[in-house]
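note to self: dont lose this again. the chain is below, predicted strucutre after it. 434 aa total, dont forget to put it in the shared folder this time
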Amino acid sequence: MLKQILADMYIEPELLAELSEGQKQILFFKMREEQIRKWKEREVKLEKEEVVLKKPVKAPGKKVSWLKGLDEDVWVWVMGEHPEDKPYNQICDNIIAERARQQAQREAEQIRAKKEEELVKRFSNVQLMDSQMDIMEVLMKEAEEKELQARQAAAAEEQRRMELELQRREAEERRRAEEELRRLEEHRAQQIYMDLKEVQCSVQRHDKEDPEWQETLRRSKAADERRRSVAKQARDDYKRLSLKAVERGRVAAMSKAFGGAAPEPKPRFQPKPKPRTVLLNNQPLSRKAGVRRTQSTSSRETIIKWFKDKQVPMRAGFEKDQDCIAPWFHGIISRQEAEELLSSGVAGSFLVRVSERIMGYVLSYRCQEGYKHFLIDSSENSYIFLGVEQLQYASLADLVEYHKVEPITMAGGEQLLNPCGQRDGQLDYADLFS
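---
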């Protein structure tokens, strides 16, 4: 069932409605991993085609990898749990200080540009007046050539001295202007920071006095705390269940008792009853234009053929180490029919039914609040809850026996206590073994 979902990259809305929030998150995680795997395969294929065509090899594309912790498991970081995470007030102060510094720097740049224009204009006028005076003196003394040469030398020396003095005065003016601009920039940054801080404090005071804001803040903190608690509990539950499964020897990787060419057992059940009419809605759902997926094979006939070919050799529905059908096993029945069967039982009653929409199983469970339904995937010659845990079982009987002792989820505490049998005079799994 999981293979079919990952191949289609699509899940029927009816099946999605039967998943809990935790199951939906894990299913989304697996679909995302499948997308990345297909993308990598496509990139490798394109690179090989480019090599054949003697084209330059593309630069390596982006890669996605999961950061792992010391336990070689995916590392998860929840914001606010690490001791080095900065508090909200400190982050706000840093942002305000940076904005104030940038604004003061922009204002100082504008003042610096104006000062530069004034200095250039001022010293250019002085140089122009000095050059005009030199020309007048040269014209008045043209007749006296020797005296003119001496005066030209003296004028040149005086001109050089005046240029040096002018450069010194210009440098001094620039230095004083730069110092003044620096002081103004620092003062302006401090002033802007204080103004922004005052605005923030006034907004915070106003928000703290607002009952609606107080209630929103309280709910946000409570939601963050719940998320951290659920994440921690999920990690602890997964480790605990994995260790217990290994200790009890019920993981499929350690035991595959029924495999290969085992002879097909003959189920013992009452005579086949009259066939009952089952209404199935196989009309395809309307999809957006441009979206394509593979054809789904989930008709009743297809599911029956799959069960006879694949599941009967694995002793699906049989009691453990016996040749009789388990009392909790049911055929292809709907969710509503399962809830009707469980309605006469108490909390802890359960049954395992063949899904009417996809090749797999559904464990229906009655709790104090109502009913829960857990999808069971059997695509890897083993049985595993879809989106609840990562433990694999060699048979449906192993799965049921294990969860008679251990709950399916720690949050719900679903222990399989009372198997729900067939209606009187009816066997809903007869067509699966006929």
